[in-house]
Amino acid sequence: MSAPQLESLYQEIILDHYRKPHHRGLRDPYEAEVHHLNPTCGDEITLRVHLDGETVADVSYEGHGCSISQASASVMTDLVIGKPIGEATAVHEEFLRLMQSKGELEPDEDVLEDAVAFAGVSRYPARIKCALLAWMAWKDATAQAVDQTGGSE
Amino acid sequence: MTSAHAPFDVARIRKDFPILEREVRPGVPLVYLDSAATSQKPLAVLDAMRDYNERHNANVHRGIHTLAEEATALYEGAREKVASFIGATDSREVVFTKNSTEAMNLLARVVPLHPGDEVVITEMEHHSNIVPWQLACERSGATLKWIGLTDDGRLDLSNLDQLVSERTKVVAFVHQSNLLGTVNPVATIAAKAHEVGAIVMVDASQSVPHMPVDVATLGADAVAFTGHKMCGPTGIGVLWARLDLLEELPPFLGGGEMIDEVTMAGSTYAAVPHKFEAGTPPIAQAVGLGAAVDYLSDLGMDAVHAHEQQLTSYLLDGLHSVDGLRVIGPPTMESRGGAVSFILDGIHPHDVGQLLDESGVAVRVGHHCARPACLRYGIPATSRASLYLYSDTADVDALIAGLGKVRSFFG
Which A-chain residues 107-136 have CB contacts (< 8 A) with chain B? Predict the structure, then answer.
């Protein structure tokens, strides 16, 4: 299995996160819990967000799905936990831009860190939803958590 | 129907399907194992549609000019071909729809249901035979009941006598499951349903393309199937139903073509089947379906079925030889067709499908629009290889070799 295109989809970083996911498991405390699924392929994620003021204090999740969706959840938690909401949202937007790039964008490693490994996914339209599943769940849960905590701004 | 045909020569048949010669990437030939999703189309079908559009295109059932008459004759000729293909005694029993989904929605929309009535379906249905009945029950106050499944992928008919009662108005179920490949005992279920006066609707989307289906003896009152899974084009499906049933049911969509007389005070409706065909129908698609039916009839559905059964057995043997692979659905050839779902231990179907595509092997991955059945077996999704008349042992060998590569990539 040495096709160059496929290697660019299944980067070693992605396989590592898939085999040993970070921050997996549902944890307390949390202000919002969401359940998202990808109806075309059956990937599912249940995700909790815990905010501490303006900071994403914890993101915990449980789910099942393909290597891309599971690895993306793991990488996403690494990127957003501990960051102010605004900064985490900016990372999310950068990742979204990468996914919409059809492989044309040189990803910003300073912002995206391990998530640069997903650049190849943007060339596979059927897989973009897999990579975005956890991010969309996080965005949804964070918006709900902000509402829950009184929307301090 | 057994002896009038040339011997079944898959190598020759493959030449009728130009797409089977293409490469998905340079040097990687297509191995098409997704015919349960849609079949490929032979040249005869493509030519018939092109000829229709180049030479005969006009609207049907209106206008008296030459083209209009030719188009009408071709459209109605296709209806007669389809009727004869499925053993219908009267071509008025064949209603053209957009696809199977629309055919089933049509019936679910027009069958009268009331509070206290019950509709019985099964856990292995495609969403297109679930959601229309859920909607019908919501509208009418009727109750939906489910026939469950056994661990080996068959209908659990042990409580059929309790599920089907005098309250049952419709029993709707799939002939051959798109997810599991199971072929269901239509006559047994239909007999029980008819004891209580219920209408029997069979989703034959995966059976009419693959085996001889004779509506005169099947036991169903209505049968739905679709053109694009049987060598025909997309955009055309069929609802066959008993003439007296069609005649007593109210119209589905309103519009041109389906009326007798329209006044400001009200309208009367055309005779069947036109009562159920509002608006300009899919004419070129009907012509294509007629050509597909001719193509299948020339091969002989007995021969098509025999070829697929033989190859399905070869496919099952191959799959059973792959380490950590579990077939979802009947593991043997008993009452099963050539759509075979499987899961590979620890590797998500999406990843299986992606890696197989790298070898040119096209399979379907996901829940196959049959999520209740997936949930029943505790799996979010499967990979599914599905065969057709043009599939051969080389296709199966490529799949099994590809699965070996998948295992080593993720192992």
Answer: 124, 127, 130
Measuring CA to CA, how many Å separate B289 from each of A60, B42, B85, B237?
Answer: 52, 11, 11, 9
What is the C-alpha R_g of chain B? 22
pLDDT at B83: 98
CB contacts of B351 in chain A (<8 Å) are 66-68
Which residue among B358, B367, B409 places its CB closest to the CB of A42?
B367
B369 catalytic, yes or no?
yes
Check A42 against B405: CB less than 8 A apart: no
| Domain termination residue (choose one: B247, B271, B297) | B297
- Is ipTM over 0.85? no
Q: Lowest-confidence range among A89-103, B133-147, B180-194, B222-236?
A: A89-103
Which tens digit of pLDDT belongs to each residue from B244-263?
Answer: 999 999 999 999 889 999 99
State yes or no: pLDDT of B286 exceeds 70.
Answer: yes
* Domain co-membership, B259 together with B358: no
Confidence grade of residue B67 (pLDDT, cut at 50, 70, 90): very high
Give A50's strand partners: A58
Mean pLDDT of chain B: 96
Task: Tell me whether A151 touches chain B (CB under 8 Å).
Answer: no
CB B4 within 8 A of CB B300: yes
Distance CA B402, CA B388 (A): 19
Rg (alpha carbons) of chain A, rounded to whole number? 15
What is the domain partition of chain A in residue ranges? 3-149
pLDDT 10s digits, B91-119: 999 999 999 999 999 999 999 999 999 99
Q: Does B370 touch chain A (CB under 8 A)?
A: no
Q: Mark yes or no for CB contact B354/A43 under 8 Å.
A: no
According to the model, what pLDDT value does residue B380 have?
84
Domain finish residue from B269, B297, B325: B297
Does one domain contain both B227 and B95? yes
Q: Which residue of A has its CA nearest to B365?
A: A41
Q: Which CATH number fits domain A3-149: 3.90.1010.10, 1.10.8.60, 3.30.420.40, 3.30.429.10?
A: 3.90.1010.10
Cβ atoms of B43 and B392 within 8 Å: the answer is no
Q: Per DSSP, what are the bridge partners of residue B120?
A: B145, B171
